[in-house]
Design brief:
With 427 residues, the protein is mostly helical. It has one domain (12-405): Cytochrome P450 (Cytochrome p450, Orthogonal Bundle). Helices cover 49% and strands 7% of the residues. The chain is built from 19 helices and five strands. It has helices spanning 12-15, 27-35, 43-53, 63-74, 79-83, 86-102, 112-128, 137-150, 155-164, 169-175, 181-190, 198-203, 217-222, 224-248, 250-267, 278-290, 336-339, 343-346, 388-405, and strands spanning 39-41, 296-301, 305-314, 320-326, 331-335. A three-stranded antiparallel sheet has the order 1-2-5. Strand 3 and strand 4 (320-326) form a beta hairpin. Helix 6 (86-102) runs parallel beside helix 19 (388-405). The chain is globular. The protein binds protoporphyrin IX containing FE. GO terms for molecular function: heme binding; iron ion binding; monooxygenase activity; oxidoreductase activity, acting on paired donors, with incorporation or reduction of molecular oxygen. Pathway: Secondary metabolite biosynthesis; terpenoid biosynthesis. Belongs to the cytochrome P450 family. It comes from Mycena albidolilacea. It holds the Pfam family p450.
């Protein structure tokens, strides 16, 4: 069930915290769904994960295998490694600013393709150690097609999602033609001598660390599609929402620009302490709260079990319950969007975009559900987003570079409606 406008079904004041859409946004229940060994991926996500990211990818793995590979990948995604991407991301940011500068006399510019390209460039350099220009044009067009497919609202895609629960994988492979082979071919041809990037770190591990079981080249190559798609589309979408909100909120934009200019003036342009910019970080948190790139995720009960709730709810038969019995095979939706608009969690103005809530100290700590600001945007539990730190750094740098140099506004008579699809498509 897709709302005509994003946020309509999440307006809990109108519909109450339990309406007939099958979804769960109770923090405790979400924690349980995301962490319990009794809960696995839903068949739809399993099929779609294999189809889009390739067989054997981290996203569809579970249990010991996931833990081993995840531990291995975590070594390439520490806070320190992520920080080392700062100069590269700043270069990407300057490149975007230069492109916008060239077109700044045009009446109105759609910045989405520019942001999309910046996110692709950043991921290509961070993960593969290559410039986008090193690849053929089909690399860029394949990525653009994946972006379009992920936010597709077409009846065919909705049907494919529905059938995904029932059809075997080989039919899905034949039915949906995503250009996913592009990445494997490119990496196999060019990728094995990479250094100074994520794949380089994984391929050349610290051999003195005997606690690690280094991944094989094959295993790493298998994760390429996942890293590229998960790292590119999500970040581009989130940055697009950031600029949409800035364009709607001139005062916030001006204050942010002042903070950026002041910080750059104090620290120098190659030395910007992004984590110590209060408004920039409050703004990013608010964007991530209201516009999670993955608005919900699906899971399935692997056995009969009991799901706890943090608040008592009244069932259709009038019973008050504080836990929900689940049956093997029940499909569960962890509704990230609604959790992040829950008034009991974020306050009465939970639906408003108000970055200052993070500065005023109004956001209560609450249950620790995710890795960043207690948001579920990067999910929680063992299957948490692998590179949430890189996503945040990328946002900090792109926003600082662009807001520091340009002013953004929405063209007159051009209303933008946000809709929900498989992902939260950019406005
Ligand atoms: C704003 C940007 C991003 C958002 C909102 C985001 C969100 C998420 C979410 C919600 C999941 C869990 C999916 C599920 O289980 O249903 C996830 C997983 C993942 N993300 Fe991100 N992500 C972002 C950026 C990135 C980046 C930059 C990378 C990098 C390389 C990345 C790599 C991954 C990977 C590999 C997984 C699978 C982890 C596993 O299953 O163990 N993501 N992400």
């Amino acid at each position: 069930m897709i709302a005509p406008t994003y946020g309509e079904y999440e307006r809990l004041k109108t519909y109450g915290s339990g309406y007939s859409l099958k979804g769960c946004f109770d923090p405790l229940a979400s924690q349980y769904i995301l962490s319990s060994p009794h809960i696995g991926l839903s068949p739809t996500l399993q099929n779609m994960g294999n189809l889009v990211f390739g067989e054997g990818n981290l996203f569809v793995m579970r249990g010991k295998e996931h833990k081993r590979l995840r531990n291995e990948f975590n070594t390439a995604f520490t806070a320190g490694t992520t920080h080392s991407y700062t100069p590269m991301l700043e270069r990407v940011g300057h490149g975007v600013a230069d492109k916008l500068e060239l077109t700044s006399d045009t009446a109105s510019i759609n910045i989405m393709p520019v942001i999309n390209n910046a996110a692709l460039t950043a991921m290509t350099e961070a993960a593969l150690g290559y410039l986008v220009d090193d690849f053929e044009d089909r690399y860029v067009s394949a990525n653009a097609q994946i972006m379009a497919a992920a936010s597709d609202l077409s009846p065919g895609k909705i049907l494919a999602d529905a059938l995904g629960t029932y059809l075997p994988e080989w039919i899905l492979h034949a039915a949906v033609k995503l250009p996913t082979r592009t990445f494997n071919t490119d990496l196999a041809q060019q990728g094995s001598d990479i250094t100074g990037d994520i794949f380089g770190a994984l391929l050349n591990p610290d051999r003195s660390d005997t606690t690690r079981t280094p991944s094989t080249g094959e295993e790493i190559i298998t994760q390429t599609q996942l890293l590229m798609i998960a790292g590119h589309e999500t970040t581009a979408t989130t940055v697009a929402f950031a600029f949409w909100e800035l364009a709607r909120n001139e005062q916030c934009q001006d204050m942010l620009r002042a903070e950026i200019h002041w910080t750059v003036g104090e620290a120098g342009s190659g030395n910007i302490p992004y984590d110590r910019m209060p408004l920039l970080n409050a703004f990013i948190k608010e964007v991530l709260r209201l516009y999670p790139a993955e608005p919900f995720t699906e899971r399935m009960a692997l056995q009969d079990t009991i799901m706890p709730l943090s608040e008592t709810i009244t069932t259709a038969t009038g019973d008050q319950i504080s836990q929900v019995p689940l049956h093997k095979g029940d499909i569960l939706i962890a509704d990230i969007t609604s959790y992040q608009r829950l008034e009991s969690r974020w306050g009465e103005d939970a639906h408003e975009f108000r970055p200052f809530r993070w500065i005023d100290g109004e956001v209560s700590k609450g249950e620790a559900v995710g890795p960043y600001a207690n948001l579920l945007t990067f999910l929680g539990g063992p299957y948490i987003c692998l590179e949430w730190r890189l996503a945040i750094l990328e946002m900090q740098i792109l926003i600082s570079e662009l807001v520091g140099n340009f002013a953004f506004a929405i063209p007159e008579n051009d209303p933008i409606t946000v809709r929900l699809a498989n992902t939260l498509p950019p406005p």
